[in-house]
Structure prediction request, 120 residues.
Amino acid sequence: MSTVSFLCDECVPDTLLAYLSQTEPAMAILGVGQPGMPTKGTKDPDLLVFAESLRLALLTRDQSTMPGHIARHLAAGHHTWGVFFLRRGFPVKKIGNDLLLIWAASQAEEWQDRIEYLPW
Prediction:
């Protein structure tokens, strides 16, 4: 079993990454455009393959096109380490605390191929 690690796509506000990094420095929370991560502008299907290869759960706010990409990704025999859609209109702290709970109280394998909406 392994700890949940996260990759934030471009739709995730930088304030969420900052909040989580400050609140729990041990948490692996990475963002598109950071060193070693996909560059900004990376297509969603490529982002899903990248996240799968590094066992990263994907955080996104893209509820318009990402669901279709996820469906095709899974239909092609690929997997995810979880995809978390972040609902708009909620404070960063609320979403961040849900992610902290996921990180602290679960294992990466529990989220494989699951899609969740946060906050709960």
About this structure: Helices lie at 14-23, 44-53, 66-75, 92-105.
